[in-house]
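User: Could you check the structure of this?
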Amino acid sequence: MLKILVIDGQGGKLGRKLVETLRKTCPDAVITAVGTNSAASVNMMRSECADRVATGENAVIVGCRSADIIIGPFGIAMADAMLGEITPAMANAVASSAAQRVLIPMNLCDTYVAGVAHGAQAIIDDAMTYIGEIVEKINAK
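Assistant: Sure, the predicted structure tokens are below.
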């Protein structure tokens, strides 16, 4: 069973959109949504598309151990990103995971990602296309 980990912080708006879109793209996947804070977790839970929802540093670390795919904003792999919500331990767990990482570029929190066009939907669509390719490769094994 394909295991997808969605990580988000702040208000969880991007995470919620990712969870909803992933459910349509990968209906059979086990989707775990982890918020770096309770507001993000609650917002992703409201989508009613995640199989499991958790909150906090340890949930990120544990989730990264068993995920096949990790998706979230670019900052999840950067210590102290998202106004300090991403701890060094979280960033390390994401960066050192054996999972495929799909990072959504965001120009927030004093980090500028060159080449990022305005409009999150195009970026999410591109990410879902890539995840579809990953799923095809996994299923072909």
